[in-house]
Amino acid sequence: MMNRDNPVWLITGCSTGFGRELAKLILARGWRAVVTARDPETVADLARGHGDRALLLSLDVTSRTQISAAVAQTKERFGRIDALVNNAGYGYLAAIEEGEDEAIRALFQTNVFGLIDMTKAVLPLMRAQRSGLVVNVSSIGGLSSFAATGYYHGTKYAVEGLSESLALEVKPLGIDVLIVEPGPFRTNWAGPSMKQSSTRIEAYAATAGERRKQTEARSGSQAGDPVRGAQAIIDAALSDTPPLRLLLGKMALELARKKLTSMRKDFDSWESTTLAADFPEGG
Question: Is the whole-model pTM more than 0.85?
Answer without folding.
Answer: yes
